[in-house]
Amino acid sequence: MQALKENKLFIVDYHDAFLPYVQRINDLETSSIYATRTLFFLTSDGTLQVIAIELVLPPQTPGAAKNSRVFTPPPKDSTKNWVWELAKAHVLSNDSSYHQIFSHL
Question: How far apart, in whole angstroms, are the C-alpha atoms of residue 88 and residue 12?
């Protein structure tokens, strides 16, 4: 709660922009995407640290719940966590796609 009061939490939300297109893109044989949300914390040295990534797929049937998974960074002393790296790759893909689509069109 203190982080909210001090304006230290930030979110990059591509969920609403991409979710309407996710199923159409994933129906293609050569493509796969998720709609993403990423939560950041502003550290004392002024950098943003990722604290969670949510990957979302649309409901499988009308009226069903969305398929959503949340990933958090692995402990610093753990071995390489490829699931975390893939979650970050989806966020970067959404970020660059959003920039190209909405900034240039």
Answer: 12
Euclidean distance between CA atoms 41 and 11, whole angstroms: 9
**Cβ burial 56-89 (10 Å sphere, 16+ → b, else e):** bbbeeeeeeeeeeeebeeeeeeeeeeeebeebbe
pTM for this predicted structure? 0.84
Helix extents (H) in 1-105: 2-5, 15-26, 82-98, 104
| Residue 99 identity | H
Cβ pair 40, 11 in contact under 8 A: yes
Tell me: the pLDDT tens digits for 38-49?
A: 999 999 999 999
Q: Give the domains, in start order, of the chain with CATH numbers.
A: 2-104 (3.10.450.60)
